[in-house]
UniProtKB/TrEMBL annotation:
It comes from Micromonospora sp. CCTCC AA 2012012. Residues 240-260, 717-747 are annotated as: Disordered. The lineage of its organism: Bacteria, Bacillati, Actinomycetota, Actinomycetes, Micromonosporales. The keyword Membrane applies. Keywords: Membrane, Transmembrane, Transmembrane helix. This is HAMP domain-containing protein.
Amino acid sequence: MSIVPMTGRPAGGHPQEDPDQLARWRLISLEKQLPQPRLLTGIGTPSLVCALLLTLLAIFAFAYLGRNTSSGVPRAVVESQHEFVSELSRSLNRSVNRSRDELGREVVAYRAHPEQAAARLAALTKDQDKWRGVAVFNPDGKTVVNRVGQVFVLPAGLAPERAALPLVDGNDARMLLVEPLADRKLLVAELRLNVRTLRLDPRSRQAVLIAVAGKGRALAQGAPVQAGPQLDPVVEKAVRASGRGRTTTRTGPAVVPARGSGATGPVVPVVTADAVGDHGFAVVSLIYSPMTTAAESREPLVAALALVVAAIVVLLILRAGLVLPVRRLLAHAKAVASGNSPGDPPSTPNAQVNRIASALSALAARPGGGPAGRHSAAGGVPAILMVVAAVVAVLGAAGGILATAKETERDLPAQVVRDSENQAGAVAAALGDSLNGGYDKLLVLGRDQPAASNQQLRRALDDLLDESGRFRSAYVLSADGSVVTSVGREPLRPTGKAPGKGGVVLHDVRGRLPIVYAYQPLADGRSLVAEFDVRYLTRLLQRMQGRVRVLDVDQRDILDSGGYLAFEQVTDAPVRGASTQALTGRTYAQVTEVDGARDLLVAAPVALDGPAAALKWTVVAQRPVTDFALPGNVLRHGALLVVVVAVGIGLLLFSWHYFFQLRPLRNLAREAATLAGGDTSQAISPRWHDDIGAVAVCLEVCRQAATHGEQRLGGAARLRGTDGMPTAIMPRVPDRRRGGRGRRKGV
């Protein structure tokens, strides 16, 4: 609608002479002055957005909660096999690397004294059954110069360079390690690929294999694996996939369970493989796992329906109690502010809207302004209660989802328990190897340099700290127990003579930190001491999920993968019982009640031989059953996720309405009541550019009209025409130019 001055008198006359035209003009002018809602600021936007979010959450809940209702191998079994095989792979990789390092030291020694080759080969293989044979070959790779152990030949075409060649022929896994010598000869060792003793589950026919892609496999431990057209491709695919740097699981077709397995239905071969470093072979675990049947679950449908119903209830409550009342109020306010006949004030369920509408009607009843009498407010429900009712509907849906969700699992598959037992044993073995290996390094250092000067020992200790992060400090003690030279950090052990003839010792059971050190006396009365880094030892515990602790014979907490107080007495009876059984040399693995929760408790001795055995430590791993990816646990966790998101939507719904709509509406109702009571001294300003802000502008127009007269109603500034220039409402002239563009300049 365009407004233009006219030189002639229109048919309708001056707008002041036509009350209807004047009212129409005021309404049009007022609407041009009112704030218009922008994106996400409309009165109905919060309820619509939250209802849309609830609908999307319903779709997500139906898909997310329903993903575990299909049949197959339990995810907890697959994950436990991944962790089991990964630990085996890391352990075997460390073993191979240590063996290559030992062979590398022989290469250095051969360069200095080639005539001592035979003696050094004998010393290398003494009391180490991992070496099947070690030999020095001539450059042609055929003639043997020195040999210790079993006879072996080099494969044809082997290049005379450093190499590691895995072999699995004859169901015997081994590796040829080749090291070039200074005189172009070759030092070759045949290394057994031994896997530490495992506790495998005979009911699942578990087997551990060493496999080379495209060349075959060898049984390391467990039940014999027969070659077959169904199983062989599955193993080969898993081995090839593991070569890409990740642990891989493949499943084969279901078969009839073996007698004595305890399975009542078909079982599935599950093959898990992980590459051992970059050595060209993989560790493979094969089990036969029962399949879980597809369960009909109502939880996905119930959750989706509850959220959809909540979305509908939110829309209905807020539309009937807030959106429509405010829109009716805005129409009433426009009529009053433009001088039109507003009629009776709208009667809505909203108390604040009714109060504002009554105040506007009272102002409309007194044209020209003047003191307003007190107007009684209409009834209704406070707007905040309606928003709270909508939020309660959302929270009720969330509570219903949580109430109908299944309880968490109370037991674990036998294979998961057995895999966890092996993992705890691996952690205990790693800890024992680290302690014993630290002492062995001091033993070798003292044997090679029994009478070296303190400066020479300092350089040797420096090398000791650099090659491994297991030590925090190393130093030399004099005969009277004082530190004469030290490397690394400040020693924690107080000065004094080292006890006994050498070994691994826990200094005391007091203080904020365990002081664990290895020591070795020298021939001249001095001693070598190396303190273990507690953080390094704790990282070994973190290879296993859950809480992993090291307890001593008196059930004190020595190391812990979580926060703890050193030497704190363990009081949980199941934990103490598991540690006590592990002290006898037997592992413990059982699902039991710990502090009122179902936990998997596993315990294993740290070391049964070597210097670390004197510590009498045990590794105790504790993990809640709810942490395992079993169908009931997954469904419960998924329901909790949906509930948390639904509660978040409820909080968003309340916050959005409270800060952007309820508070402005409440303040506007108070200002309207003040204005209706005759106080026109305070200007009314809109808080936001939305529907409530438009009502506030209308109230401000009414306030000005009450103060200055009805000429201040909507559009008043443009209604002051002069004689000869009447103002009238003109019809819009359609734009006939193409594309709606203006004419060019000069045209």
